[in-house]
Design a protein that fits this description.
single chain, 250 residues, alpha+beta, Beta-Lactamase, 5-stranded antiparallel beta sheet, 9 helices, globular
Length: 250
């Protein structure tokens, strides 16, 4: 199925394990710093349920412009994948590691910048996820979009996205009609990458309700096999960014 297969030692040598641990600890520290920088770049106090969330007028259109300070944060996150997405699912910005993991969303035409559209209309998009995880990922994504729709029922662009998805995907239409509502939070996600193999990553979702955007950071637990594979992904992505060709959700 995959164009390139990588072989991994089931028990890395002590030196490799120590290196993987150091890399994972560095990535964790970087993710923590990103939380603080995200609060600064987004105006402070911008997490879900905070003052910014309460102050935002109901029905106001989503903001698509990413703040320069947030783009600078992405540039500084060199050891772990990170991206900025809108609450509609539009991929607004990616760092180099996220492009290596998901593929470059900006290279996709038109509506395919939207992760939900791509997932529900392109069968190849699901290959980034293990088969047993796909239903759960789909349900979570649609429930999150339902929550966005509840916040902005008059958003014409959001309504248009839902209408097009219902017309193109029976699965999306059925999930939408189930009326499940949930907001994305921290999660553990698994990816089947064509170069790095199986990656189990902690997914940290840092929302900025004032601008209807989320900074999403993926980290591997220090000393884990996924930590070593994430290092491989970084090397492969730097050598050939085009290797990451599959676009998933978040």
């Amino acid at each position: 199925m995959w164009p390139i297969r990588a072989r991994f030692r089931p028990f890395p040598e002590p030196s490799a394990a120590r290196a993987a641990t150091r890399h994972g600890e560095a990535a964790t520290r970087t993710a923590r710093r990103s939380r603080r920088r995200w609060r600064d770049a987004s105006g402070g106090g911008s997490f879900a349920g905070g003052p910014a969330a309460q102050a935002r007028p109901r029905g106001r259109p989503a903001t698509e412009r990413v703040r320069p300070g947030l783009l600078l944060i992405l540039d500084h996150l060199t050891e772990t994948p990170a991206r900025v997405v809108s609450d509609r699912g539009d991929v607004l910005a990616q760092n180099a590691m996220d492009k290596a993991l998901h593929g470059d969303a900006s290279a996709r035409p038109g509506t395919e910048h939207n992760a939900l559209w791509h997932y529900f209309t392109d069968p190849g998009a699901r290959e980034l996820f293990p088969a047993e995880d796909r239903d759960r990922a789909a349900r979570a994504a649609v429930a999150d979009l339902r929550a966005t729709f509840a916040r902005r029922p008059d958003d014409a662009r959001l309504a248009g996205l839902v209408r097009r998805l219902r017309a193109r995907s029976q699965e999306f239409s059925a999930l939408w009609d189930a009326h499940h509502v949930a907001v994305r939070r921290t999660d553990v996600k698994r990816f089947l990458h064509p170069v790095a193999g199986l990656l189990e990553l902690d997914c940290e979702v840092l929302p900025n309700p004032e601008h209807d955007q989320r900074l999403i950071v993926y980290t591997a637990r220090p000393g884990s096999g996924s930590c070593e594979r994430l290092r491989l992904l970084r090397v492969a992505g730097l050598q050939d960014p085009a290797r990451g060709q599959v676009e998933g959700f978040v």
